[in-house]
Amino acid sequence: MSTLRGVGIGLGAASGPVARMAEALPAPTKQSSSIGTDAERSRARDAINTVAADLQQRADAVTGTAREVLEAQAMIAEDPTLQEEIDARLDEGTTAEWAVHDAFAGFRATLEAVGGYLGERAADLDDIAQRVLARLRGVAAPGVPDPGHPFVLVARDLAPADTALLNLDRVLALVTTDGGPTSHTAILAREKGIVAVVGAAGAAHLTDGQTVIVDAATGIVDDAPTEDEVASVQERQAARDTTEAEPTAGALADGTPVALLANLGKPGDAADAVARGAEGVGLFRTEFLFLSASQAPTIAQQRESYIELLQAFAGRKVVVRLLDAGADKPLAFLNDAHEGNPALGLRGLRALRASEDILREQLTALAEADAATSADLWVMAPMVTTVEETAYFTGLAREFGVKTAGVMVEVPASALLADRVLAHADFASIGTNDLTQYTMAADRLLGSVAGFQDPWHPAVLRLVREVGSAGERHGKPVGICGEAAADPLLAVVLVGLGATSLSMAPAALADVRRALAMHTRDAARTLADAALGADDAIGAREAARAASHPF
User: Fold this and answer.
1) Separation between Cα atoms, residue 47 and residue 134, nearest integer Å
2) Where a domain ends, among 220, 243, 266?
3) What confidence tens digit (pLDDT) does each residue in 303-362 have?
4) 76 part of a folded domain
């Protein structure tokens, strides 16, 4: 048996033959055009427009994170600044292939230097450039292969455009040599419920047709399995499918309840969450109402969407996060001032407080929707930093008739003062993505520091424990609604740190439900202590795994 190690996404396992993603197209050499500048310009623009239209078409066919990423790619492809760079090179008499290649490379370097949201988008340029070059050369763009039968996809990494439209009837599992637990590929794999192991560098030697076992629970790829091992994996996956088809309430092995909730981006996502056994909603992002608008939606428009959501979860808890704008989600009608470092600027509750009419209108719409439905509505403010902000928001929310008002804990300040924050708030919800970003001083959207963006880091876990302990002392719920909750082993650790509910992409619910059911409350605390005793994220993950029962 030969094993390759990476980071597993979820608890699933699968076996099947390998199909490798084609390698990137070779870079063109700089050559003078033989057909003239105008003809080359026409070729370049036709290719870019075709690629942009294809990306937008793919975006229209999917939802959630995949749609957001694909729409961003389509916009990048048609960026006027990028077009100007291509034109400048064409004016020198070069071919469209060289002009596109060199302009994209230069644009990529510029975005990387800017950092933040734009820095993360720089990584998407490689995929766009490859698609445009393929169009110019009249060849198929590098993408997901189709060998005509189910397969295990092996790639260096997957572009969002590829991941978004994976045929789940054919792709048994996904293995990448690059990337980590917070990469786009990992996030989208969780969202789609794909068995995946990412960052398995040794997978580079796997060949087409080679049978492998991909075990996400252990993060191992077995490249020489026996027939008995393959049969065992198939039985295990069949049992997992049965469990997913008959969801039960989340609980530890000793019966301690742990509510398993869904992260949703729009009311239309509710049906899938209910079908997968979500006990409610732990994070409903209201940005979808605002981001595509030139002005804030009316109270009536908001109320209609909130009613649709609440009706889908009649009698169940629904936690709605107020508009979280700023940083990577700027809104001209909320805050159009230039900020050198928007992640540390006027965002979240700060931005809402500066435009209090928008905050009051959102609270009005939510209160009216609550009165018209039977769901248990909880409302929370994003990016709360101080005790004073907590008191301000909870007081205002109650003034508008919101019965349960809480806060998002996403910065170390509110985590360290959780005792005082929870003296005012009815509940706290920990956003592990931002909490990790601010704890580790590592922009969550910047690929160059992605290695620091790991919620397993003991510094982050210590802050979670602060909030969990404060919640226990005050008798108030503490939820987790960041990507960390979708990691089955980390979910157990988070419960051991005091979390009373976990919210995640619906596809992750089954794996987390199984992981919780295998550990008692005492065992969860043992895993948490083991992770806290480590020096870094890798050590914390390994310590918790060693302390856990084998999955």
Assistant:
1) 9
2) 243
3) 999 999 999 999 999 999 999 876 555 566 666 666 667 678 778 899 899 889 999 999
4) yes
Among 205, 222, 243, identify where a domain stops. 243
Residue 152 forms part of a structural domain: yes
Whether 28 is in a domain gets the answer no
One domain, residues 201 and 265: no
Task: Report d(CA 26, CA 447) in Å as an integer.
Answer: 23
Assess whether 549 carries a catalytic annotation: no
Task: Determine which one of 101, 184, 474, 519 is catalytic.
Answer: 184
Which candidate, 440, 315, 306, 424, places its Cα nearest to that of 374?
315
Q: Decide if 149 is catalytic.
A: no
Average pLDDT over residues 189-200: 85
Do 432 and 485 touch, CB atoms closer than 8 A?
A: yes
Domain count within the chain: 3
Range of the domain at 54: 37-137
Asked if residue 62 and residue 160 are part of one domain, the reply reads no
- State pLDDT tens for residues 452-509: 888 999 999 999 999 999 999 999 999 999 889 998 999 999 999 999 999 998 988 9
The b/e string for 281-308 (b: 16+ C-beta within 10 A; e otherwise) is: bbbbbbbbbbeeeeebbebeebbebbbe
Residue tagged active-site, from 101, 457, 474, 481:
481
Q: What is the pTM of this model?
A: 0.72
- Same domain (yes/no): 259, 397: yes
Give the DSSP letter string of 465-520. HHHHHHHHHHT--EEE-SGGGGSHHHHHHHHHTT--EEEE-GGGHHHHHHHHHT--
My answer on whether 170 and 227 are in the same domain is: yes
